[in-house]
Design brief:
363 residues; alpha/beta; TIM Barrel; 13 helices
């Protein structure tokens, strides 16, 4: 990487990162990975896509501390820099602090995905000593009642908010994210204000899909595409961000592969049982790291690009592809096949593209 840095000294930041990203992708460096330390969770969210896979009975099958440390070390040797520790709820692991500290002391930029309700004094002290890149807290409503209905757990709102404020008070970098659904669609302005008043980033997502177990009931919670875009593009900053994204990547050439993202090229995901995937959504190819090395598994992940789109695949040349959240893994979860698009995402993409292009033209 040093040669790339030397060659781009003096370029604008955007040019530098574009050049670096191209080099990383060209060399197939597993730069960004997520580790689901457990599928267990102390909440019972109605929209959760892994809720039927996890459970206390799965705990004995989860990787142990030494196995996670080995995978972290091997991923680092392969070039990984950014790690997300996620779940389920990763803080349910009794060895979370040991795994987290190992990743930090090994030089990784570590982000923690959490619901925030289990952050206590020991966790706060850990984050003071070894600051994370970000603690990204999921909060599904702006009131206790809404959070209780979604998470099935009393006081999840109060505990998460207290954890956010405690982390901010000690200087830990915090982000806030939420999923749009019929149960909370009226509270997004309040959620945005909650984040704004604390000076933290807020992210929203309308992408609800069936559970990996096949349970399709979460789809009943989707807001309409029109409502999703109304909430998302309520301010000029969001529109400007999408406009820049489409301008930068809108001319990328179409490929014959169904997958055209970083899955298996620059990103990877490891589930609680040590199975390596190209990303959290792509279920194949798979490689068992519990009995194999990361380098060998990473070689296998390249086969995600072997899945070729049929001639009539309507996403191939779609000009709105970048605006829809195109994801073959999402398609497979919803429709059973990576090359059968989600009509929900298609509608969102069309509306988003029209809104962004109208704003760009002054309409």
């Amino acid at each position: 990487m040093s040669s790339v840095c030397a060659q781009t000294t003096g370029l604008e930041d955007r040019e530098f990162w574009d050049s670096l990203s191209a080099r990383i992708a060209g060399d197939r460096v597993p730069y960004y990975g997520s580790l689901a330390l457990t599928h267990r969770c102390n909440l019972h969210c109605v929209h959760c896509y892994i809720r039927s896979e996890g459970g206390d009975h799965d705990a004995p099958r989860e990787l142990d501390t030494l196995q996670w440390k080995r995978i972290i070390d091997e991923a680092g040797e392969a070039g990984c820099l950014n790690l997300v520790l996620t779940g389920g709820e990763p803080l349910l692991r009794e060895d979370f602090a040991e795994i987290y500290a190992h990743a930090k002391r090994s030089g990784f930029l570590v982000t923690v995905f959490t619901n925030g309700t289990l952050i206590d004094g020991e966790t706060l002290a850990l984050f003071r000593e070894l600051p994370p890149r970000l603690v990204d807290v999921s909060l599904y409503g702006a009131t206790e009642d809404t959070c209780r209905r979604i998470t099935g757990t009393p006081d999840s709102f109060g505990r998460a908010l207290a954890a956010i404020d405690a982390m901010l008070a000690q200087g830990t970098r915090v982000g806030l994210k939420s999923v749009m659904m019929t149960l909370n669609e009226g509270e997004f302005s309040a959620l945005e204000e909650l984040a704004r008043s604390r000076g933290i980033r807020f992210r929203r997502d309308a992408a609800i899909f069936p559970a990996f177990s096949g349970d399709r009931s979460p789809l009943e919670l989707r807001v309409s595409p029109e409502k999703a875009l109304e909430l998302e593009l309520a301010d000029a900053v969001a529109i400007a961000g999408w406009r820049e994204y489409l301008e930068r990547y809108g001319d990328a050439p179409a490929t014959g592969s169904v997958y055209s993202c970083g899955a298996g090229i620059t990103t990877f995901h490891v589930d609680p049982f040590g199975v390596l995937h190209p990303c959290v959504m792509a279920r194949a190819p798979r490689y068992p790291l519990a009995c194999g090395r990361f380098a060998d598994g990473w070689s296998e992940m390249a086969h995600v690009r072997d899945l070729q789109a049929p001639a009539d695949f309507r996403c191939r040349d779609c000009r709105m592809k970048l605006a829809c959240g195109y994801c073959p893994g999402f398609f497979a979860a919803e429709n059973g096949s990576e090359d059968v698009p989600s009509e929900y995402l298609c509608r969102i993409g069309k509306l988003r593209y029209e809104r962004i292009t109208q704003a760009a033209s002054g309409g």
